[in-house]
Amino acid sequence: MLEILDALQYTFIQRAILATILTSIACGVIGVYVVTKKIVFIAGGISHACFGGIGLSFYLGLNPLIGLLPFSILSAGALGFLSKKTKVSEDSAIGILWSLGVAIGVILIYLTPGYAPDLMTYLFGNILTVPASDIWLMIGIDIVILVTVVLFFKEFLSMCFDEEYTRVVGVSSDKIYLLLLCLLALATVAMIKVVGIILIIAMLSIPASISRKFSHNMKTMMVYSSVIGAVLSLIGLALSYQFDLPSGATIILVMSVVYLFVVGVSEIQKRVQRKNVEVDFE
Amino acid sequence: MNSKEFDSNAPVLDVQHLWVRYDAHTVLEDVSLQIAGPGEILGIIGPNGGGKTTFLKSILGLIPISKGEISVFGLSPEKARQYIGYVPQYNKYDYDFPISVLEVVLTGRLKRAGLFHRYSKEDKAAAMQALETVGMAEFKDKQIGELSGGQRQRVFIARALSNDPKFLLMDEPNTGLDTFMQDELYRILADLKKEMAIIVISHDVGAVSAHMDKIACMNRRLFFHDSKEMSREDFIAAYGCSIDLVAHGVPHRVLGTHPYAHGADGSTCGCGSTPLVISDLAAETPAAGQKDETKEAK
């Protein structure tokens, strides 16, 4: 335990903690929309499409986050456009984007001369190597996400609950949906360094799913899910430091265990309640 | 053809030769319908897949039409939407969704409240007023999933009313309601029709007939004589055969209080209902033989 406290004095650990908290805020807020609107796999599609952006950055010799930003927004836009304006089903669009992004990334990285040392970082994440510049970018992304969600809160709520009725009252639910996908893309960019492409899906869905067990109010859920995300991530981070495990994977493991526990307890509660009702009848 | 401004003197609804096709499949064929003003409930009945929901959605401008003209208060559907209240089919929602009753009703005021603004006091007052109308005000803070089917249906009616509509469209409002709650629903509608024109669609003939002022039948084409009377041919054309619709096969679910003289010979069936009248059929059928006739039809 003391070892962990000692670790707090290192800059890279402090930065890791800050990055974890910033990521938890972004995915806590957006995750609530992802879970209630049931677009977890769209989040997966966008994050994998981002791999193409990473490949492009390597190929052009840029900071990977610079390539990621336009790529993620572009893939969100493409997904929204394909599913809303053409006859392609959203499901297929996700599958195509998912594999296409990875394919582009693999080819571009293959074509890049020399070894690409950071590749694993983007697949599985490594929060311990987050540079200060990325922290600033994440702060920026968090601010953009929070401000947008505050400004469009009632539109997002209406669109997520009932897209058709939102159109009936005269608000373009397609545009609102696209805006949500763009925020999702931004959150993905913020998260890639921390948990990696593959584990983003869990980071977006697990804290929000846990919060759902404790609240039926969108705003409260967002606060809960950010806090739950941050606490569980930090526990995961501590464990990964202690046992020398990959940080992203450990964080997800901790979250999954807690999720299963919460779901288990709530199921048992339901059964007990049902049993009590039956007993009352007798 | 459509003028820019809302015109309260324009007919509520004017549909001329409407066709809707999906790929090669024709959903609506040459449908024309006029509603002059408020005061009446038009029931549109017809089998499932007969195009009823498509018809409502084309009035709302939610789906592209292939041919024809739709004008609502003299406006295009897109522009007229803000004056229309819509109660969609009841079973399409995720009732686990984290939204309260009041929040659902407030979404009816989404456009009015405007971008970047919270819902105003006026919006909240209008939403509460709508909840009062349907008798759901005390449930305003409940999560939508905590309500019963009938209560939810009333919340969706309140959402449609919150924006102060001049025209109300309801898609299968009976679904999930028991007989008592259906009566309650039609009592509310009877009040509302003084201020707005109402269209109710349903596949269940018996459930709607007693409460409608006029009845149309829809199965790809619309059969309507601007009255409550339907000819046997209309029903056969609409349903393919005349079995389910027979007014006297099901009327006891919808008992009104006025005995009705049937057909040309003026005989009454004595069931005391005001079912929709199938004039030709009723004329042929002796009142005493209703039950046999139902069986025969099967």
How would you characterize the overall build of this protein?
The complex is a heterodimer of chains A (282) and B (298). Chain A is globular and about 70 Å long. Chain A has a single domain (2-281), classed as ABC transporter involved in vitamin B12 uptake, BtuC, CATH 1.10.3470.10. Chain A contains 13 helices and no strands. Chain A has helices at 2-7, 11-36, 40-60, 64-85, 90-111, 119-124, 132-151, 153-161, 163-168, 173-195, 200-212, 218-243, 247-281. Chain A is mostly helical and 282 residues long. Chain A starts with a helix and ends with a helix. Chain B is of the alpha/beta class and 298 residues long. Chain B folds into 2 domains: 13-245, P-loop containing nucleotide triphosphate hydrolases (Rossmann fold, 3-Layer(aba) Sandwich); 246-298, no CATH class. In chain B, strands 5-6-7-3-8-9 form a 6-stranded mixed beta sheet, with helices on both faces. In chain B, strands 2-1-4 form a 3-stranded antiparallel beta sheet, with helices on one face. Chain B has a two-stranded parallel ribbon with strand order 10-13. In chain B, a hairpin with a 2-residue loop joins β1 (13-22) and β2. The longest helix of chain B has 14 residues, at 179-192. Residues 241-298 of chain B have low confidence and may be disordered. Chain A binds chain B through residues 32, 36, 38, 151-152, 154-155, 157-158, 160-162, 164-171, 212, 215-218, 221, and chain B through 60, 62, 81-82, 84, 86, 88, 93-94, 96-100, 103-104, 106-111, 113, 115-116, 118-119, 143, 145, 159, 163. Chain A: Keywords: Membrane, Transmembrane, Transmembrane helix. Chain A: It is a multi-pass membrane protein. Chain A: The chain crosses the membrane at residues 12-34, 39-59, 65-82, 94-115, 135-153, 222-241, 247-265.
